[in-house]
Specification:
single chain; 312 residues; alpha+beta; Arc Repressor Mutant, subunit A; 2 domains; four-stranded mixed beta sheet; 11 helices; 13 strands
C-alpha cells in the first residue's frame, strides 16, 4: 500500500504544474524526512569545533566519490543539517499533497528552532545564521546520482540564503529564505527520502546522529544490518582512528540511546562487526526465522550485553 501511494505521488508530481518561485513553509506538524544520499555518505562534519579540513570518501563498491571542501566558516555539521531536514520535510509533504513547491523556501526561524528541539533564546537565532553560512560555504564535489542525474562538479548544499527579518541586535534571523541546490532538490522531486522519528532531534552527540542515519538507511525494513567496524568508521565520516572510534561506538551501544534501533557487536567475526537491529521484535523475529538465525542472534545478545553494575 505504501509503495502504491508513493508511486501515485510521483506521478502526480511529474504530471502537475507544481513549480513556483517561492515555497512558504508554514506547517507546524510534519513528517520528518531525510534524503537518502546524505544518510548514505559522510557529507556532514561530526566535529564540534570549526572544521576546515577537506574530506574525501571513495566507495570502491560502486565507484561513487565525494569531496567536501569547507569555507572559512568551517564545514556544515550534522546539526546544521537540521535546517535542510526542516526544509526538505515541508517540501516532500507538499509534494504528497499535490501542492506547489519550489527550490526557494521561506520560513520563520522560531518554527524551525522549536520543530527541531532547539531553544528559542537570542543565541539560537544567531546560531541559525551561522548554520546558513556553513551550509552555503561548504562545497561538494561528487558523482552521487540524484533523480537519475549524475554531475561531477562543485556545488553548495544550499545555493543561497537571505535573512528576511533580523533580531533586534542584528545578529540573528527571525525569518529565513534559502534556495536548495539542484542536486538536493532533484532527490526530493524523485522522493529519494526516508522518514525519521522526531526523537532523532534529541540525539545530542554527532556520532549518535550519524550512526542512526546509517542504521535507518541500511536497515530499512530489513530488521538488521551488519557492517565491519572499519567500514562503519569510513561511512560515518569520523576522523578518529579505529581504536577511538570503536570505543565511542561501544559507549553508544552501552547507553542504548538510539531511537528505533539497538546496537550490538558480533564477536564471531574477527575483528568484531557492528550489528544494528530494530526494536520491533515481530519484524526482527520474522527475518531471523526466515534466515534461520535465531541461534546467532541469541549469542549476539549475550556477547553484547554490558555487565551488570555491582550494588554498593
Amino acid at each position: 500500500m505504501a509503495t502504491t501511494k508513493k508511486t501515485a505521488a510521483k506521478k502526480k508530481a511529474a504530471n502537475s504544474p507544481i513549480q513556483q518561485d517561492l515555497f512558504m513553509a508554514e506547517l507546524v506538524d510534519w513528517p520528518v524526512k531525510d534524503d537518502i544520499h546524505s544518510m548514505e555518505y559522510p557529507i556532514f562534519s561530526l566535529a564540534k569545533n570549526r572544521d576546515k579540513e577537506i574530506r574525501e570518501f571513495v566507495d570502491e563498491r560502486n565507484g561513487r566519490t565525494l569531496r567536501v571542501i569547507p569555507s572559512v566558516y568551517g564545514a556544515a555539521t550534522v546539526f546544521d543539517k537540521d535546517i535542510l531536514i526542516f526544509a526538505m520535510s515541508q517540501i516532500v509533504d507538499a509534494l504528497n499533497r499535490g501542492a506547489p513547491v519550489s527550490r526557494s523556501i521561506q520560513f520563520e526561524t522560531f518554527n524551525y528552532l522549536t520543530a527541531t528541539g532547539r531553544g528559542d533564546g537570542g543565541a539560537d537565532f544567531t546560531r541559525a545564521v551561522d548554520s546558513l553560512r556553513r551550509l552555503r560555504g561548504t562545497t561538494l564535489e561528487t558523482n552521487l546520482e540524484t533523480g537519475a542525474v549524475v554531475q561531477l562538479e562543485g556545488f553548495g548544499l544550499i545555493e543561497d540564503y537571505q535573512v528576511m527579518r533580523k533580531t533586534a541586535n542584528g545578529k540573528g534571523a527571525l525569518s529565513i529564505r534559502i534556495t536548495l541546490s539542484e542536486w538536493l532538490y532533484r532527490a526530493l522531486m524523485s522522493f529519494e527520502v526516508l522518514t525519521l522519528p522526531r526523537e532523532y532531534f534529541e540525539l545530542s552527540q554527532p556520532l549518535e546522529r550519524r550512526l542512526f542515519e546509517l542504521a535507518r538507511k541500511h536497515t530499512g525494513k530489513g530488521a538488521y544490518w551488519v557492517v565491519s567496524m572499519e567500514r562503519l568508521r569510513l561511512k560515518s565520516g569520523s576522523k578518529q582512528d579505529i581504536y577511538g572510534f570503536t570505543r565511542d561506538v561501544k559507549k553508544i551501544m552501552a547507553a542504548d540511546s538510539l531511537p528505533v534501533y539497538r546496537v550490538a557487536l558480533d564477536t564471531s567475526k574477527k575483528p568484531a562487526h557492528v550489528v544494528f537491529f530494530t526494536r520491533d521484535w515481530r519484524t526482527l523475529a520474522e527475518r531471523l526465522e526466515a534466515e534461520n538465525r535465531f541461534e546467532w542472534f541469541e549469542k549476539l545478545k549475550k556477547s553484547s550485553t554490558p555487565p551488570a553494575k555491582k550494588a554498593k
